[in-house]
Write a structure and sequence with these properties.
Layout lengths: L2 H9 L14 E5 L2 E4 L4 E4 L2 H4 L8 H11 L12 H14 L4 E6 L2 H16 L3 E5 L8 H6 L14 E5 L14 H16 L7 E4 L15 H12 L2 E5 L26 E4 L10 E6 H4 L14 H16 L2 H20 L5 E7 L2 E6 L9 H13 L2 E2 L1 E3 L6 E4 L7 H17 L2
Parallel strand pairs: 3-13, 5-6, 5-7, 7-8, 8-9
Antiparallel strand pairs: 1-2, 2-3, 4-10, 9-10, 11-12, 12-15, 14-15
Helix pairs in contact: 3-10, 4-10, 7-8, 11-13, 12-13
Length: 427
């Protein structure tokens, strides 16, 4: 056990998860690469859990942060804050939500907490619809609606949660249906569920389930859900903490794959917008955002330094069309991984879109999750110089691939080669 690991174990909680048998200390990064304390270089295909969205040490972001820290770091939301207003204006514009209002938090968890507060206050209901296999954060209210046992340590909750089918296309009772039949069955399930309960406040759903292993429904499911929800006045919250800002390539927001019935009532975001700085937030129609009948502030949400980082990062993302790069390079990477794993019996599925890719592992000859293999591949990939993540619903058996959106074709090929060797070594 190295010294830093021993010190970590002595002062931090046992449940604070660490990757790798010999945990890794990352000391610095540049572009799509990071270095550890021993000087080893790694191609980063996980980006601090989808947070380093553009690049490590992006000059435009580090310059903006440095300049802002030389002026003022923090003042709270009790004072006018130019960087916060400017970033809110840009986010409101790209959100596609009419008459949008933006509230900044420090994390995706806090953003989802805020969305739940808004929805339940606006609707005067504490019942929430959530998706099976979902994850929405680590706060008391967020773990209470999370549909993933491995990340929900208590059943106590201020909310009544009802779980809906549809977040996972290739597992569950509707997996064998066609896409159209799958959507129809999930809609009928939703209608039946609503017939047995008082009208809920909202449905919260990740367009692509992150911790759940990058699973998703067929395009159009949430549009079909929304038609039913609107009949009952139920709000739609799109949890875009992992899918936002062009990561899926085809769309700027994950919900746009389900846009037939219009934008969500509330969108939550975090992670990539700050490129590593602590930014989360909520976008909602003014009537919903303004529905709270008591005072509220945020001490650290919208602080000047993080807002400066977000402004610079969003500008870089848009000016360099990183969404288009995610679509092009991500498409090549998905195709490359599908070809490489076609003959590997332990690989059940390569799924995803853009630079949000999941590789689900099973015990060869079965459909049973293989978390041991996922851990082994994680270790082997690290040995080869590649960092990836893992996740999954009933069991942690999906590899999660989410590089910075500036990934080059050459780096995608390099990472695919390393991952292919790691997968073969674990068979």
């Amino acid at each position: 056990m190295n010294d830093l690991y021993a010190r970590h174990r002595a002062v931090l909680p046992d449940w604070l998860a660490l990757y790798y048998e010999d945990p890794l200390e990352i000391t610095h990064g540049e572009g799509r690469h990071v270095w550890d304390a021993h000087g080893n270089r790694y191609l980063d295909f996980f980006g601090g859990i989808l947070t380093t969205m553009t690049a490590h040490a992006l000059p435009e972001v580090t310059k903006a942060v440095s300049e802002q820290t030389g002026r003022i770091i923090h003042s709270s939301t009790l004072y006018l804050n130019r960087p916060m207003v400017e970033l809110a204006e840009r986010i409101a514009e790209v959100s596609q939500i009419p008459d949008a209002r933006v509230f900044f938090t420090t994390s995706g968890t806090e953003a989802n907490d805020t969305a739940l507060l808004l929805a339940t206050a606006y609707r005067r209901s504490n019942t929430i619809l959530a998706m099976r296999n979902s994850y929405h954060g680590r706060s008391f209210s967020a773990v209470g609606i999370t549909g993933n046992r491995g990340w929900s340590p208590t059943s106590l909750s201020p909310l009544q949660t009802l779980y809906v089918h549809g977040g996972v296309r290739t597992r569950g009772p509707y997996a064998a249906l066609s896409d159209a039949e799958f959507i129809a069955a999930c809609v009928e399930d939703l209608k039946d569920l609503l017939g047995h309960t008082r009208a809920p406040a909202a449905l919260i759903a990740e367009p692509v389930q992150g911790v759940g292993g990058f699973t998703s429904p067929p395009d159009g499911l949430y549009a079909a859900f929304r038609e039913v929800l609107q009949e009952h006045g139920i709000l739609w919250i799109a949890d875009e903490v992992q899918t936002g800002w062009g990561r899926t390539g085809d769309h700027f927001w994950g919900w746009q794959a389900h846009a037939r019935s219009g934008p969500p009532d509330i969108v939550t975001f975090a992670k990539g917008i700050g490129n590593g700085m602590s930014i989360g937030g909520v976008v909602a129609r003014a009537e919903i955002m303004n529905s709270l009948d008591s005072n509220s502030i945020s001490t650290f949400g919208g602080t000047q330094v993080t807002m400066a980082a977000g402004l610079a990062n969003l500008a870089y993302l848009l000016e360099h069309d990183l969404q288009g790069n995610a679509r092009r390079v991500g498409g090549l990477l998905i195709d490359r991984l599908r070809t490489a794993t076609a003959q590997l019996p332990g690989v059940r599925e390569v799924r995803g879109r853009g630079l949000m890719i999941g590789v689900e592992l099973v015990r060869p000859g079965t459909d049973e999750a293989d978390p041991g293999a996922a851990s082994a591949v994680l270790e082997a990939a690290r040995e080869g110089g590649l960092l990836i993540g893992k996740g999954g619903g009933h069991n942690t058996s999906a590899l999660r691939i989410a590089p910075p959106l500036s990934l080059t074709v050459a780096e995608a090929e390099e990472g695919a080669d390393i991952l292919e060797r790691a997968l073969r070594s674990a068979q």
